[in-house]
Structures are given as C-alpha cells and as structure tokens.
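Researcher: We plan to redesign the surface later, but first we want a full-length starting point. Tokens attached.
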C-alpha cells in the first residue's frame, strides 16, 4: 500500500495532491527549483528537496535527479500531476524499473496514447470514430500537400508528439501548408527532440468535448461524464463546464460507451481523458487521450462527488473500482475559469513578477485551487496558470452567477490576468445560450467587446469621481446649508 508519495510537480497541482494525501494519512515529498524555494507546496509537504535551477530542464524535467530524491527519501509512489513529466513514458518506465508506483497508466499504454498515429489506429480497430485524415505519417511536405488536396482544405498539420495546443497548424492553401510544415516540424523537434506529422481534416465550428475515463487493474472501466472545453485561445482551454449544453442523457451514454472502448483499446489504467471534437452536425470524432489528471478535473469532482486523486491512489494500490457505471449520477452544473497571468491585449503575452497582495474568492460552492499568497511571485519560467476558479450550482445560471461574483471578488495585485476577459464572456448572450465553439473568441468578437466593457467601466468611474468631487465642493456644501436654514425639516435630516 502507498505510504509516501513524491509529487513530481509544482504550484497548485502539487498542493492539490498534497491535500488528498494528507487527508488519507499518506506522507508527501515535494521537490522544488531555485525559483520555488518559498512556494506553498514546499511548506505544505511532509518533506521537501531541492532539485536544481529554475529552468525546467534542470529541475522538474530532470528525471535522474527526481529519481535520486525518490530513492533517498523512501518514496514508494510518484504522482506526476500534469505537464512536465506527467505524460513522459520514459519517466514512467524509470519508475517501474525502480519499483516505484507511478500513479497513472503503464509506460507502454502511455507511449501508445502519446503516439497520435498508433492511438488513432487502435481507435479505428475498436470502432471509435476519428477525424478523417492520413492513414499513416506523412514523409514530407509533398505527401502532405497531396493528402490535403484529397481530403479538401482546410486541414490541420499535427505533430504526433505535440500536446497542449503545440505542434498544430490550420492551413487553407498549398503554400500555407508548406510554410506550416516546417514550423510544426521545428516545434516538435524543440519540444521532444523528434518529429512525425499527420494530416487531418479541419472541422469548422466545432466543439471540444472531453470525457473523464477511469479503469482499474481488474478490467473494470467507467466514464465520469463529459466536460465542454470549447472556449479556447490558440488551442489552449480557458473556460470549461460540465455538463455540456449539447449532450443529453442518450448522447452521454452513447459516447461514454465509446470512451470505455477507447480505454480498453490502449489497455489504459488509472484516470485519463478521451478528447473529442463535435462537428456542427452533431457527430463526435475522437482526437486523443490525455494520459494524466486533467487541469479541469475539479468541476468533474463537483458534479460527481468524487475525489479524483483518491481514486487515482486507490487504483494504483490495486483496488477495484468501488462503483459501476449505473451507480454514477451527475449532480448540478459546474464551471471552471483558468486564471492566467497574461495580458489579453498583448496577444495573451505572459505577465510575471511579484504579487504583493491577493484576495482569494470563497463562499458556498466556490472552489479555488491556487498557489497564490500575498508576497509570492509569478515566475517567467513556468506556465501562466495561477489558479483554477470553480463554481457549482443546481442550475447552470446559478453556477454562472456564482462565477461572476467570484471573479469580482478575485483580486491579484502586480500582474495582468485573464479575469476581465472571463467577466465579458460570461455576460454574453452567446455564452448564456450555450453557443460554444473552439473559435468562440473570434466568431463573436470577444476581445473587441472586452475593450468596450473596459471603456464603459472607465467612464462610470470617471462619472463617479466627478459626482464625489461635486458632493464635497464648497459650492455644493454652501447650497445645502442654505437649504437647511430655510427648511427646518431638511435641517433635522442633516443633523441626523
């Protein structure tokens, strides 16, 4: 049984894992870089160890150094969180070799999930529908161009080893394809040191809908419902919600059965996510499996009543799932906003530096997973995600209004944030009506509407300031005194 877990990560996800482990009486080991010496996960863990310089390659991606800490600290399991080494099958295999329980799928299964071409082949064998595209890797730009003309533009060039929106380009012409081919190849080489490209049909006006899946070592598999993740920028998610406004109970069951097939097709164990694109005609197409705990897992916890990290630990311990699919029910509606340190008006450029003060929202059915505290620093070395703000409601509208209130209560001093953007989105009729798609920001001119909202807010503040100045002016006060002198009733009110 797992008794001590090393969290091979940082920030809010490290804190999230520590919370569940602490509640279960499991000891935790934190690792940290030079940049993270004063981070909360270092203080909250049972033990903490320094592993290197700020740059991820010299700390959180340093497999040998992390293994050294695992062995010296007596760790019997490792939780990779998300990002960094979470989907690195070499790291999972290193853990297996050293008899350390990797809390996630096996190295072989992870390798298969990470190879988009082999994973696609496995899905086709399992009769899970995939996006139309190349049957194999394309050898060069000439072959990619030929396939694109057969499929029909627009198409996507995708690196088999991409992820998180990287290594993907949408092209509309032969020339765009040739230019993008070089870029996608270079991005993949820079990220993982190898490149392999596939071509897929680009489906316009699509929704990004994913399913949480779960499978134990005894062959029991279930899905834990869907999440709508369509509001994105540069293929990276901004706002997620569950349930999806376009998935009814029949469709949920239909796609859920495909998700279980997908898990079985790649012999997946532990928690993972099957991602789909939903075309405008209602058809679902599998795109990939994320072989880890998702950033947006809290909203699925809110509607299912489950602790996903505990579930991961139980499965890693070899325990069978404590429920069947028929036992699982969705309860209410939940929304997550990813609070990023970035400047919306500078093409979402990262915003870093000290955070002198911060106010974290709270209240009924409000959850905020964050590493922020007064005096902390948002580092330029890591992801811009500072917090995951989540709200739950018995209805979608209740959850939406709670989110707006929570966003208004969230104060982060010192860096630019995505909070103003989310307020604008949540107030649009399109969002309220569930008219979501992966091009939501562009299709509905959200950035221009945000600018208009901020302009109106500035006008309101200016008018309020003018009104306050007038109220305190000598001329106004003299008129008030004059009125009260001739009207006893007003004088009585003024005295009170």
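Model: Full-length starting sequence:
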């Amino acid at each position: 049984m797992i008794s001590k877990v090393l969290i091979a990560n940082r920030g809010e996800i490290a804190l999230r894992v520590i919370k569940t482990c602490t509640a279960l009486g499991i000891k935790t080991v934190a690792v940290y870089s030079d940049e993270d010496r004063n981070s909360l996960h270092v203080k909250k863990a049972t033990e903490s160890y320094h592993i290197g310089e700020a740059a991820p390659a010299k700390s959180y991606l340093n497999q040998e150094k992390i293994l050294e800490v695992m062995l010296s600290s007596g760790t019997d399991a490792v939780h990779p969180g998300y990002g960094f080494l979470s989907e690195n099958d070499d790291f999972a295999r290193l853990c297996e070799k050293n008899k350390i329980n990797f809390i996630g799928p096996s190295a072989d299964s992870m390798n298969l999930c990470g190879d988009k071409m082999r994973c696609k082949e496995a899905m086709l064998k399992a009769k899970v529908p995939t996006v139309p595209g190349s049957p194999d890797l394309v050898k060069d730009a000439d072959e990619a161009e030929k396939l694109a003309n057969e499929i029909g533009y627009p198409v996507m060039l995708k690196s088999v080893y991409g992820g998180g929106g990287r290594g993907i380009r949408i092209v509309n012409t032969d020339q765009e394809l040739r230019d993008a081919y070089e870029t996608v190849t270079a991005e993949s080489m820079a990220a993982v040191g190898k490149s392999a490209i596939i071509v897929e049909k680009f489906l316009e006006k699509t929704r990004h809908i994913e399913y949480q899946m779960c499978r134990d070592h005894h062959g029991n598999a279930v899905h834990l419902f869907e999440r709508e993740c369509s509001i994105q920028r540069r293929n990276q998610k901004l706002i997620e919600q569950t349930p999806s406004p376009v998935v009814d109970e029949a469709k949920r069951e239909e796609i859920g059965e495909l998700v279980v097939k997908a898990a079985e097709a790649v012999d997946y164990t532990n928690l993972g996510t099957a991602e789909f694109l939903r075309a405008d005609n209602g058809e679902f197409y599998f795109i990939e499996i994320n072989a880890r705990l998702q950033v947006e897992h809290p909203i699925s916890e809110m509607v299912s009543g489950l602790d996903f990290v505990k579930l991961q630990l139980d499965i890693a311990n070899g325990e069978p799932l404590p429920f069947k699919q028929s036992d699982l029910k969705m309860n209410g509606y939940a929304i997550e906003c990813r609070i990023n340190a970035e400047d919306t008006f500078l093409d979402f450029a990262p915003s870093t530096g000290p955070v002198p003060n911060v106010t974290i929202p709270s209240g009924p059915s409000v959850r905020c997973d964050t590493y922020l505290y007064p005096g902390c620093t948002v580092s330029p070395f890591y992801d811009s995600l500072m917090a995951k703000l989540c709200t739950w409601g018995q209805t979608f509208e209740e959850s939406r209004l709670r989110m707006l209130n929570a966003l208004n209560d969230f104060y982060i001093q010192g860096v630019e944030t995505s909070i103003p953007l989310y307020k604008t989105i949540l107030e649009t009729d399109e969002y309220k009506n569930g008219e979501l798609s992966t091009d939501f920001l562009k299709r509905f001119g959200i950035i221009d509407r945000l600018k208009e909202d901020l302009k109106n807010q500035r006008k309101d503040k200016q008018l309020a300031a003018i009104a306050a100045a007038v109220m305190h002016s000598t001329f106004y006060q003299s008129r008030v005194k004059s009125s009260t002198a001739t009207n006893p009733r007003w004088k009585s009110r003024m005295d009170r």
